[in-house]
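tool_call: predict_structure(chain=1)
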Amino acid sequence: MCLASDERLRLGVSARGSFAESQAAFLEPDAAVVAELQDAVERANMGVVAHYYMDAELQGALTRLKWPHVFIADSLAMGDAAARQVDAGATSVAVLGVDFMAESVRATLDAHGHRHVPVFRLSPNKIGCSLAESAEAQVYGAWLTKAAKSASKALHVVYINTSLRCKAAAQSIVPTITCTSSNVVQTILQAAAQVPDLSIWYGPDTYMGENLRSMFQRYASMSDSEIKALHPSHDQASVSALLDRFEVFQQGNCIVHHMFGDDIVKTVKERHPDAYVTAHLEVPGEMFELAMEAKARGRGAVGSTSNILSFITEKSKEAAQRLADGDASAKSVKFILGTESGMISSIVKGVQETLRTGGKAGDGVEVEIIFPVAADAVSAVDGDLQVVPGVPAGEGCSTAGGCATCPYMKMNDLEALTALAEKVHASGDNWGKDPILVSHLPRQLAREVAARGAEPILNMRDFMREGRLSDALVADVEHRAMSETDLKDTLQQWAAMK
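tool_result:
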């Protein structure tokens, strides 16, 4: 996706290739469609929380709503946003994401005292996630059992993109803290600093875990002063010791980020050597290393979806200012987008707002977002604004998901959201008696399971608030002991998840 701005053309968009055209078409959604959705959510008094990976049509409509209870973000922020919406008066919440996100939103509302407020998914069918499901396999439970039986103190750092049942079962075996792709590095560094001789078991995303190992190896080669700038309690010796006690689950990945391998890296190096490079922590090592090398030169970002969005908008702002100051080289800036294609909608919106609010400084800047989905799937387009990918004939990507597009996320669509809101309005206070609406509820968990599953999330919240592990979590790590019978019973919970 490429955006440009000058006094004649203010932030217009052109596209080439079927995928690019489908993305661009929904950046300015049909007013009648938006009005229909606006009416439906208002009458239902429904809050809407959506992940960045929703399709362009849905995101385009959501961003045009004049309704205060709409929020598009990453998975961690969705639950907090839902709680704010209910506090502000919303009487139901629609979760536009995969099932574990709906479960997390449900748990967050419960924790805020909003058990009476229904949470709905957009499909009556299971909306899965390859990564979350890898953590529900019995092999994951067996891996954690190994951690529990290890001689050293153990802490399980579990990625937030897992189900509440998985988190509950994990917490039953070994002390567990949830992490995000934004806070995982500091979580691990702090845990290792705070608990001597701690073994850290990270899962379920194998690529992210190995990327973290690579990152810590880089840290171990830095000077002590450089390391202390990252975390004041660490030096070369402590980071090296951390690496000796860092375990990664080897059988989990996101089917979308798995696509960013050698072929993509070769394409980027050959065709876009001057581009900024962004990559989600879930990508394979080859793409991760490319982005890390770029980051070391001040031309890359590695992290979460929010990190990527912030980096692109900030660099766009810098380019606009440099151009205004007379630097002609800042007229055109390119970014490689190393994550799911749904991010394009939020990035376009963010860059447009950045250039528009920059006033005169924003004029004349061209910002190109390149999505290297496969070899020969990126094409140059003449003119001020381009939406990439898509080769000239339109191959490489398709509107049906030929690009790096999550098929589970795309089970959420605009028609389903409108229909759900209309159904909720029609049912009123009797929604619980409607079998269709009941089928849209998140998986129902026993209260004790939901509470246990929330513990790792609360441990993360404590860390984010205080900058250190809570005393209760540290005590659990230092004194946890499980009998063989308890371990066997917990492993049976894993078998039941399937």
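agent: Confidence is low (pLDDT under 50) at residues 1-11, 374-402. Proceeding to next step.
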